Amino acid sequence: MSRLQVVSGKGGTGKTTVAAALALALATEGRRTLLVEVEGRQGIAQLFETEALPYEERRIAVAPGGGEVYALAIDPELALLDYLQMFYKLGGAGRALKKLGAIDFATTIAPGLRDVLLTGKACEAVRRKNKRGRYSYDYVVMDAPPTGRITRFLNVNDEVAGLARIGPIHNQAQAVMRVLKSPETAVHLVTLLEEMPVQETADGVAELHEAALPVGNVFVNMIRPHILDEEAVRAAANDHRAAVAAALSRAGVRGGKQLVGPLLEQAAEHAQRVELEREQRTVLSGLGLPSYELPLIGEGVDLAGLHELATELRKQGVGS
């Protein structure tokens, strides 16, 4: 399995939740994962019910088998200071630039630079080794920007390498792209069984392929249970008002005639949803990508729900 797991998805599909559950699922049997946030929303901290993440790698969870999940919220300003120190040894001069507001100015007026810093920091974590020569993390999971922006976000270093044809910036951009366009990386897309997210997923897959970025899996999130079996779904698509009323009477239900209308409406809505979901599954299967499914959990995912989702992913083979 690829060591850099990039998770994207249309807004509202739960990509941050999926990224967090994936990090937990991969951190089994003593493995270490780093969960990276790049959008500054502190969504990871909320999911793991911990305080806001600083610009440092902090352990936030322990997985079954003694594995550990660390998290990092990348601050573009501080990442730029790291970058300047790494390549130009600015030291105190870099801190002075920050005090003057030059760092904030640079990352604000040049969004491409911001993305270079974010992807570079994640790739550095992927490549980093400890004193024994082993990778510091078995997996790095990135909660990445939404599907509509993911290809440009990951491909920005290609543009930078073309602009800066020599020197440390050129070399760094090339090093990042060697990771992002290699089997070390997999870009996963999160969707719901709804028309717009599925279409955006299909478009995202096409864009990633065109940019020669490695596409991973599709995670179908918030799957709702099917209350009716296939025969009942077919029956609900037709109006069997009299038969339902008779069945309620035989069952001893009082006021059965008043219940018939609302019951049939709900059944018909359910049947319609099942049919729409079936159509979207067909579209997703046409993408030819492996897929995982995660259930809808109540009205929101807390830490217990996150572990439940991670367990579901492990059941489906993630991390094995």
From TrEMBL:
Entries under SUPFAM superfamilies matching the protein: P-loop containing nucleoside triphosphate hydrolases
Tree of life domain: Bacteria
Domain named ArsA/GET3 Anion-transporting ATPase-like: residues: 5-180
Gene3D superfamilies: P-loop containing nucleotide triphosphate hydrolases (3.40.50.300)
InterPro entries: ArsA/GET3_ATPase-like, ATPase_ArsA/GET3, P-loop_NTPase
Pfam families xrefs: ArsA_ATPase
PANTHER family: ARSENICAL PUMP-DRIVING ATPASE ARSENITE-TRANSLOCATING ATPASE, ATPASE RV3679-RELATED
Name this polypeptide is given: ArsA-related P-loop ATPase
